[in-house]
Amino acid sequence: MLSAAFNIVGFSWITSPAATELEVIVLDWFAKMLKLPSQFLSDAPGGGVIQGTASEAVLVVLLAARDRTLKKHGKKSLEKLVVYASDQTHSALQKACQVAGIFPENFRVVKADCSKNYAVAPEAVSEAISVDLSSGLIPFFICATVGTTSSSAVDPLPELGNIAQGHDMWFHIDAAYAGSACMCPEYRHHLDGVEKADSFNMNAHKWFLTNFDCSLLWVKDRSYLVEALSTNPEFLKNKASQANSVVDFKDWQIPLGRRFRSLKLWMVLRLYGVENLQSYIRKHIQLAEHFEQLVLSDSRFEVVTPRLFSLVCFRLLPPTSEYEGGRQLNYDLMDAANSSGKIFISHTVLAGKFVLRFAVGAPLTEEQHVDAAWKLLQDEATKLSGSA
Ligand code: PLP
Known about the structure:
By secondary structure, the protein is of the alpha/beta class. The chain folds into two domains: 1-272, 3-Layer(aba) Sandwich (Aspartate Aminotransferase, domain 2); 275-385, Aspartate Aminotransferase, domain 1 (Alpha-Beta Complex). It is built from twelve helices and 13 strands. The longest helix is centred in the last third of the chain and has 35 residues, at 262-296. The protein is globular and about 75 Å long. The N and C termini lie far apart (52 Å). The protein binds pyridoxal-5'-phosphate. Residues 53-55, 90, 92, 145, 147, 149, 174, 176-177, 203, 215 line the site of pyridoxal-5'-phosphate (PLP). This is Tyrosine decarboxylase 1. Keywords: Decarboxylase, Lyase, Pyridoxal phosphate. One of its GO terms (biological process) is phenol-containing compound biosynthetic process. GO terms for molecular function: carboxy-lyase activity; pyridoxal phosphate binding.
């Protein structure tokens, strides 16, 4: 409410020094909380900035990477630039490629490895890169995910980082959802390898008690962002910017205008504190674990992928005679559960299986709600098997 009421339009430092300075401070705090490498801090060549969404975050770093590569290979090389990601990567990357002018045929979607909980296999990425290099193309961008949207898989960051470094490629990590969990020491290992990344993103507006929108992006070298995105029209010139002594976040993002979003994050951090925020995350993960145990205790169901965070991927096992492999059955179960108006679950498809997704992430969720949701799912499953 304060952020909206202050109505700050803080594009340049001069338009609101407080908004800019607080953003720098809060993102440094956050980076330290996540134990990001020191290069991502504001007193290093890197730094953090608040974007509206993870989609904007990946777009701006893709533009920075594109321009860095074109500078090396020449402007006419755009048609040769290739991006790599897994088939579990969020569609935000594809959209970013469309906006950035990456040729659609140069967007490599590497199939994730179902034996590794749908993380991408580094060997498959390496192989795709070798094929492209031998065709005279220029691999320039790898996007890894920590907590994929469908099943919260974690891509192997150290190996992908090595591949990126070996080919002078930009390495971006999308931790939009699961980044929040990594502030707990017991989940921080999922970020091992982040030291090899050029950029790292997580959404405070997903699982960090911060109102939409608030997507946190850190880069290891801010000069690439600024080179790709800065403009310097006469009407924005001012003493502070020209002395190069301040940060103008307009050069780290697509729009010019920007809101006082750091105030929201500052408020969350100051109000709760790190320990309470860690307990908040742990509680959700425990509730998801509880749900997972409930599913495992009913032989009519299966847990489809091992649960890493607060998302459980599960399904009702179809009778062996069902030729669709449980698609209709699970669709009907989801539809019945959602039509009750009591819970809302969503779905995905993994290796051809129609999978239901139970996610804990709301501040007021308690064990009784998880139990009630499970009972509802069990009852609906019973009705469905009765009508089969
Ligand atoms: N990346 C991941 C892993 C996501 O789960 C999502 C949203 O679900 C996004 C990116 C896109 O987020 P945004 O809506 O902030 O662009």
